[in-house]
Design goal:
The protein is mainly beta. It is about 10% helix and about 45% strand. The chain is globular and about 55 Å long. About 30% of the residues are buried.
Length: about 220
């Protein structure tokens, strides 16, 4: 069932093991590979120049244990440490302090205090997640359609994390992340592909807060 596969999306943190709160300390890179370091610094500088981000994405989750595959589409919005995620069955809002998880079928919203997880990947940091706590290695160049790509592998220095490797595919010319594959210790592979990327759209802060007036009859569950 899709609801089981995406169970973590309904919890306090949207697990983007993709999409990842912005970490802005380029000096925190662990220079295990100079070529990879230079590439990531250029990508990081590019993303940091944006005031806001809108990213249409596709998620594909492969469970090697039961050989099942599930797919989902959605839209991620990021403004500083605020984020909003829209998917078929749910919407997630976070203003940096409070998180609202709205379940469409149940017309129910779960409210919780927000704090960045130390073990999972937060939606607002997906484009700069590699900046701290990773060893990285340049694998090589390739092509995706007419786009020249660069592949980099990331290995977390914190062995308590639920994943052991992240593979990034980067558009060499545009200096943007095209997709990210997360290899989890439980045998699940998660592929996050950016299908459309639009920066610097103006969003009011209220866009990242749940508006219960727009959902008549919504049931509120306060978990704070």
């Amino acid at each position: 069932m899709k609801s089981k596969v995406f169970k973590k999306l309904k919890s306090k943190y949207l697990y983007f093991a993709a999409f990842s709160f912005i970490l802005f300390v380029a000096s925190a890179f662990i220079t295990s590979d100079k070529d990879a370091g230079k590439i990531l610094e250029r990508v990081s500088k590019n993303y940091k120049s944006y005031k806001t981000i809108k990213a249409d994405f596709k998620i594909k989750i492969l469970n090697k244990q039961n050989k099942s595959t599930q797919s989902e589409k959605g839209i991620l919005y990021v403004k500083s440490k605020k984020f909003r995620v829209e998917m078929d069955g749910q919407e997630i809002y976070c203003d940096g302090k409070t998180m609202w998880t709205y379940l469409k079928d149940a017309n129910e919203v779960q409210i919780s205090d927000y704090s960045a997880s130390k073990t999972e990947i937060n939606p607002s940091e997906i484009f700069t997640v590699y900046e701290k706590g990773f060893l990285f290695k340049f694998i090589g160049e390739g092509k995706k359609g007419n786009i020249i790509t660069q592949q980099i592998e990331l290995t977390p220095t914190d062995k308590k994390k639920p994943f052991f490797k992240i593979k990034l595919t980067i558009d060499k010319v545009a200096k943007k992340i095209m997709d990210m594959t997360v290899l989890n210790k439980n045998g699940v592979e998660s592929l996050y592909e950016i299908t459309q990327f639009t920066p610097n759209i103006s969003y009011e802060d209220s866009f990242f807060k749940f508006d219960k007036k727009s959902k008549p009859g919504v049931v509120e569950i306060d978990l704070r």
